[in-house]
Amino acid sequence: MSEPVFEPTVPDDRPAEVDTVVVSLLRNRIRYAPEVVAQAVIELAYAGQLTVWPSGSGRTSIEPAEPELTGADAAAVSAWGRILLDRLRDRAVPGRPTPLSVLTTVDGDGYWDWRGRFEKALVKRAERDGLIERRLSLAKKATVVCGPALIAGAAVGTVVGLVLRPSPGFGAALATAFFSALFASIALLRMDEWRLSEPGRRTVQEAEAALAGRDLPPDSLEGAIRAGVDPLPADHIWSSHNGSWRVVGLGSRFGDTKRMPREVLDALPERQVLVCQVVKRWYVPGGRERSPAYCCAFDDGSSSFTWTFDLPEKVWHTLSVGDLVRLDFSPRRHKLHAVAALDVPAV
């Protein structure tokens, strides 16, 4: 593997007192986005925590600095930085840099877990720095105003119902309305949203003005990172089967076997056992006419497409992205017979 071409030198025009990753989150309306991950990777690269490997195809790769920091050096890394590095090490293949878009491509529960913790750490930092605050939206303000009126009306109605007893169910109905209004008001008060504070608004405006005049060539560190951070298309996923990274398509390798010509279908094996890697897990909620589906995509390392099956719920919960499994199935009928995790480390 060739040496990385980027030197982690911080440009002179970057403000040191502002967490640029937090500012990136604020610029994206206080929500996660691939651009926020890109800024985090840039900061960690400048701090010497990441090595960046460019690629002519635009698929930039990264790997944590070795050895892993400990003690005071580790404590100096921001909370969001530790979360990103942990995710990177969790998905890493020994001896291989990790494609940057592995961090932004949805592959299962692990992705949502790290993304949630990453965003939460940034929001906590923004709150500590006074850049965001909680404010009620117009609709919620109206609810707060109307809430006491509803509660008072329900209380009076309950008393009237209990004293005058116009009907056996009248008091119970008004009491139910009273407690419903009370709990609804409490819930809405707790659902207020984060908004930019005045300092936060000024910070974002300054960041926008600074970025407007910047040119990021593709062969620069920041340019390469921003070019490689976008997630894969929804019908593709990263696989590290056999110890190297590659992109595979989701879905059955042979497509819908019911639509295949008879002679082609008969040529497929009736039963096959392969060692595969779990490359994606997802859940499809059930509806009125269908049961929920617990799906996994498996890569056998020999094709540009995966084998995809609906698994029993108990089996699905035992598997994780990156696990190696023994897949027993029928390619001809696209039917799963059994799947069992192999007692070896995932790669």
Could you characterize what this model shows?
The chain is an alpha+beta fold and about 350 residues long. It contains 11 helices and 12 strands. The strands form 4 sheets. It has a 5-stranded antiparallel β-sheet with strand order 10-9-8-11-12. A 3-stranded antiparallel β-sheet has the order 1-2-3. It has a two-stranded antiparallel ribbon with strand order 4-5. A hairpin with a 7-residue loop joins β1 and β2. α1 packs antiparallel against α2 (about 35-45) and α1 (about 20-25) crosses α8. The longest helix has 27 residues, at about 140-165. The radius of gyration is 27 Å and the shape is globular. The relative contact order is 0.11. The model has no long low-confidence stretch (mean pLDDT about 80).
Helix content: 40-55%
The protein's oligomeric status is: single chain
Would you list the SSEs in sequence order as H and E? HHEEHHEHEHHEHHEEHEEEHEE
Mean pLDDT: 81
**Number of E-state strands:** 12
Strand content: 15-25%
* Gyration radius over CA: 27 Å
Contiguous runs where pLDDT drops below 50 for at least 5 residues: none
Q: For the record, give the distance between the C-alpha atoms at the N and C termini, rounded to a whole number.
A: 19 Å
Give the neighbour order of strands across the main sheet: 10-9-8-11-12
- Strand-pairing-aware structural class: alpha+beta
Q: What is the overall shape?
A: globular
**Largest beta sheet, briefly?**
5 strands, antiparallel
Annotation field: number of helices: 11
